[in-house]
Backbone:
């Protein structure tokens, strides 16, 4: 059967399965639970056939969600054993974090060692990035503490006694000392993400201060390391459907469908928080900086659509840079601010991580103080630098940070079930934020061209033909 012909079949089977399940649940029409179960598995078989033809990792993750949930519902005793799949996936993810964070931070900081040459423009850009991402952080925290999307998830059958946040009383001195590594190998082995971040930042600053002949080899090595780890992440993500399916089967087998309702609530919370961020933070900034909002929206429509569809900011980067030049931002400003923003100005990702981290704590029944929440999100904000180009890379960051704060990992797999839908929105906001940052810095530098008219390639070609004709060619 052709790819397009499977769509109505899958939709029809989905409707029939839902209808029969509802009728069986309420005892209407004499429909037995066995008939409803058979209808659901028939729908899943068609769904899998559709996924085979699509060959999309995101779609396979969605399929594995449905299959895992059905296994957990129909065969709970067997579903509990599938936790090994999610544990194996989690172990693979944890191997990524230290080299990925080190490589991206070193390249992001030492790679811009020419900040002295760029001067005040670089400083203005970094100040702007820090202010806006901080607003995103606090909006995320406010939203999740307001909706409490993770509260109320039953932990029946889940062994969390060894996974909860440490309750050992620590002084301010202990907390501060815990940030700084005494042995980088020990920090990596223990999953102390913030210590790895501190080491990487100091290493990058030292690298930026040495002579070019010493800096270049280490910078190229770090760049190669980060690129390899991006590919490593992509390879590991091929195991995501198994990890998600196993985790969801285990979760539903142990706790039923209640956690999925919380996940949907988290999804709504994220979208609402991102809309608030766009309207309350970015829109006023555009007005204050006197950015032509209508022209700006028209210019970014295509790159934002690309980012939303592909869940990768990097996929939208070339078109976004071109769009900002067409809006009236000089190329030298676009070339500096846009790539730098991809490392330091991840508004959507920062907001999402603050939501997700607190959701994990709420799901685990752990009441984090505001200070603990800020330390956790500050860690997430630092470790997320430079990962905008990789779909679902924020999952890697989230899992590693959750582990370093001794929070349980199982709520993260509840998030992973809807991560693709959340990734689309946060990536689109990342692109919007970076495009606006480019325009704002140009205005701040006094170089934004208000009435800029982008040259028409057709007109340029006509002028070239005319010039050739005049010269007798």
Residues:
């Amino acid at each position: 059967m052709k790819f397009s012909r499977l769509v109505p079949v899958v939709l029809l089977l989905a409707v029939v399965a839902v209808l029969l399940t509802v009728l069986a649940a309420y005892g209407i029409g004499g429909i037995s639970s066995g008939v409803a179960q058979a209808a659901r598995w028939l729908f899943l078989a068609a769904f899998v056939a559709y996924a085979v033809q699509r060959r999309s990792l995101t779609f396979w993750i969605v399929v594995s969600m449905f299959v895992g949930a059905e296994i957990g519902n129909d065969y709970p005793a067997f579903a509990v054993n599938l936790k090994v799949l999610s544990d194996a996936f989690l172990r693979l993810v944890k191997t990524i974090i230290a080299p990925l964070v080190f490589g991206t931070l070193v390249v992001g900081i030492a790679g811009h060692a020419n900040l002295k040459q760029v001067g005040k423009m670089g400083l203005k850009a970094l100040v702007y990035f820090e202010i806006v991402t901080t607003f995103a952080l606090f909006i995320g925290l406010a939203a999740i503490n307001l909706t409490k999307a993770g509260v109320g998830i039953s932990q029946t059958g889940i062994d969390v006694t060894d996974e909860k946040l440490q309750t050992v009383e620590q002084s301010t001195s202990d907390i501060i000392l815990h940030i700084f590594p005494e042995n980088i190998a020990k920090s990596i082995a223990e999953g102390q993400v913030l210590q790895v971040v501190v080491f990487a930042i100091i290493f990058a600053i030292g690298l930026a201060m040495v002579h070019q002949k010493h800096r270049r080899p280490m910078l190229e090595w770090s760049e190669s390391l980060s690129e390899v780890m991006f590919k490593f992440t992509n390879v590991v993500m091929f195991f995501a459907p198994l990890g998600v399916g196993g985790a969801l089967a285990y979760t539903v087998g142990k706790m039923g469908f209640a956690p999925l309702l919380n996940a949907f609530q988290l999804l709504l919370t994220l979208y609402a928080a991102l809309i608030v961020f766009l309207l309350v933070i970015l829109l006023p900034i555009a007005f204050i900086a006197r950015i032509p909002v209508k022209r700006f929206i028209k210019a970014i429509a295509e790159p934002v659509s690309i980012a939303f569809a592909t869940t990768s900011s990097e996929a939208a980067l070339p078109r976004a840079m071109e769009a900002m030049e067409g809006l009236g931002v000089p190329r030298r400003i676009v070339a500096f601010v846009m790539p730098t923003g991809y490392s330091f100005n991840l508004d959507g990702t920062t907001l999402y991580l603050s939501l997700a981290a607190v959701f994990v704590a709420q799901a685990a029944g752990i009441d984090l103080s505001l200070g603990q929440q800020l330390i956790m999100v500050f860690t997430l904000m630092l470790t997320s630098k430079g990962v905008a180009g990789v779909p679902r890379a924020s999952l890697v960051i989230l899992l590693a940070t959750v582990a370093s704060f001794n929070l349980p990992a199982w709520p993260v797999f509840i998030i992973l079930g809807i991560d693709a839908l959340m990734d689309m929105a946060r990536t689109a906001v990342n692109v919007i934020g970076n495009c606006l940052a480019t325009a704002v810095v140009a205005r701040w530098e006094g170089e934004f061209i208000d009435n800029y008219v982008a040259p028409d390639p057709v007109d340029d070609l006509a002028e070239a033909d005319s010039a050739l004709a005049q010269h007798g060619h």
The CA atoms of residues 51 and 59 lie 7 Å apart.
